[in-house]
Amino acid sequence: MDEIEVVVAHSERATLRVGDVFLKVDTDQARIDAEVEAMALVPVPTPEVLWRKPPVLALAALPGATLGRLGGPSTGSPAAWAAAGAAIRTLHDAPLPPRLGRAGRSTAALAAELDEECAALVAHGILPADLVARNRQVAEAAFRPWTPAFTHGDLQIEHVFVDGDEVTGIIDWSEAGRGDPLYDLATFTLGHEEHLDDVIAGYGTGIDVDLEVIHAWWSMRSLLVVRWLSEHGFDPFLPGCEVDVLRSRM
């Protein structure tokens, strides 16, 4: 019998791997519904849905491996990173979905959330005030008009699988919907700035890729998740992770 591998687990959801099957257990049925709906719409490869029995979604494993992980060494050739950029562009060029995604939050709502989180990080002594203030300043560049695209909404490096120089699939679509395309590019390259040029080369022209905005999203995403990660059994202070991303903006 195959062993059970715990891929990720916290109080809201868990993902287990049993052989070639991933079992996603989620307390929020709406997230599962959103994930299945998005995978049916996107023009990029996704895992096969094997079955659904709330609160569990069973997905087939994808061939290949990810290009690395946050806080770890990156793998894959420049061509593989460019292929990931091309796949992201294919997604962003797709017809807009009906749902508003995580990357589509209004500027006012996002700014209010960011200011609240920055205050909490300082008040609880989680991060130094100067580090928070500097990255809050950098994050300001993300607050600008943008043209909505079909976005993944949580495009971490661990969510894109490649085999050689070919993208074999993208996973975890529960945050997908209309949003800022540069949020996806920033999330995918978070902590792996050295591959940003490769990703942009594959992504191509036609959508304005403003590096200042990508840097802004790096700062904002890191500020928004540090406290949550610390409270849910993850360590954003590990080398190469979110706190190092924030320090790099100093």
TrEMBL record:
GO terms for molecular function: transferase activity. The keyword Transferase applies. Residues 30-206 form the Aminoglycoside phosphotransferase domain. InterPro entries: AGP_Transferase (IPR051678), Aminoglycoside_PTrfase (IPR002575), Kinase-like_dom_sf (IPR011009). The keyword Membrane does not apply. This is Aminoglycoside phosphotransferase. It comes from the Bacteria. Keywords: Transferase.
